[in-house]
Amino acid sequence: MALLEVKNVSKKYGARAAMDQVSFEVEAGHIVGLIGPNGAGKSTTMRAITGLMSYSSGTISFDGQPVTFSNHQALDKIGNLIEYPSIYPNLTALEHLKLYAMDTKSPADFKMLMHKTQIDGDNFGKRKAKNFSLGMKQRLGIAIALIRNPKLVILDEPMNGLDPQSVHDLRELIRSLADEGTAFLISSHLLDELQKLVDDVVIINHGKIIEKDTMSNFFSHDKVRWTVDTNDNEAALLVVQEHNWQASIDDGHLQITGAESLQEVISAINQANLKILTLNTITGNLEKSLLDMLAADDKGE
């Protein structure tokens, strides 16, 4: 049995379906990326899982127990940071952790948790939260999400406001906790960072799950693409199309897929007496794969 099971969950606002038969699972120790455009249903799904809102039909269970708007027994072992952390301006970081640990039987060690999330420095010691930067507040919010030693952590845009070093450190922290058995469900628009982190992907669009797979399987279907610039991209486009390869000109660059090899592409362009100025091979790009999938779904393909 998976740690988290979401089965055929729907949520409607009037005639609009914010969640439409949403189903997916999260295994213990797995990092799952919940991905989709703004308004796709990511935050609604996360709020339903954490018991923050009701849903119209379907079931959500965590660690074998049901989760509903009125049944929160299972939530003691779920940590979450959804949208923005609930931070009190006149409390320090340590005072926040003590506050959020009050109803927890076995909270995390404060000192160790503050060190892991990098909120143990002088900037956090005596300063009140009203003086924290956005990145400092975000790291505190992540620490609060971990205060219960949760089995599952749900993070919505956890990298928001963090500098590159802090993003790297957060990624390492999440990976280390997952290796110890903690599961994560993460939504982020920083797809390059998410790609480095997640084990599984769940893609949602217009409230429906349109793809769910492991990251490795997701990219195994991704075709190799070549981005080419020549001295005449319009002429090169015609050459490529004559070989029945898929091609288009995006942002002034010739994009090619479908050829058996790069050498085939180079030979075809050279034989047409065109000069190749730049050439790049692109594969396994989460952002491009996501955009292609969303475009196909919007077209009903």
UniProtKB/TrEMBL annotation:
A single GO molecular function term of this UniProt record: ATP hydrolysis activity
Top-level lineage group: Bacteria
Keywords from the UniProt entry: ATP-binding, Nucleotide-binding, Transport
InterPro entries registered for this protein in UniProt: AAA+_ATPase, ABC_transporter-like_ATP-bd, ABC_transporter-like_CS, P-loop_NTPase
Domain ABC transporter, first and last residues per copy: 4-231
Pfam families reported in the protein's UniProt record: ABC_tran
Family of the protein in this entry: Belongs to the ABC transporter superfamily.
Name of the molecule in the record: ATP-binding cassette domain-containing protein
Lineage: Bacteria, Bacillati, Bacillota, Bacilli, Lactobacillales
